[in-house]
Amino acid sequence: MLKAIINDQTFEISDEKGAISINNQPFSWDLRDISENHFHIIKDNQSYNAELVEANYAEKIFKLKINGTIHTVNLKNRTDLLLEKMGMSSAASAKLNNLKAPMPGLIYEMKVKVGDEVKKGDVLLILVAMKMENAIKAAGDGIVKSIKTNTGDSVEKGQLIMEFE
Q: E strands within the chain?
């Protein structure tokens, strides 16, 4: 499940067994690459030219030009939605204090060590939950003060994983 916010309109996107639906309505289209960052789309017998103008993968914000009109797309994946639901959205704070496990899982890989300086959007660790690898990113800037878990440890939801200065 993804949530896409396009020019202040919100859409819920799901893909189950290759069948895409938007706001619980079936969605079909034909998308073809023309060149790097340029695409041709046919939807409901209408033709669209699309260009990826700007991409901020860390923030998941993209600017698309479709038939000459710029559209800003802000994507939120399952982890982003879960963190937002728990009150831990990335907009909550510019400075990090503590990182707690957003869900139960297994610490698969630590991407930082004590003393590392991290910026908002940096991947801190990989948490495996429900057979999926989740990249846990920094919600703000900080320096890793201590790491309370190790690779291979199981963590519970809300368990302290890291502290920041």
A: 2-6, 9-16, 19-22, 25-26, 30-35, 38-43, 46-56, 61-66, 69-76, 98-100, 105-110, 117-118, 123-129, 132-137, 142-147, 154-155, 160-164
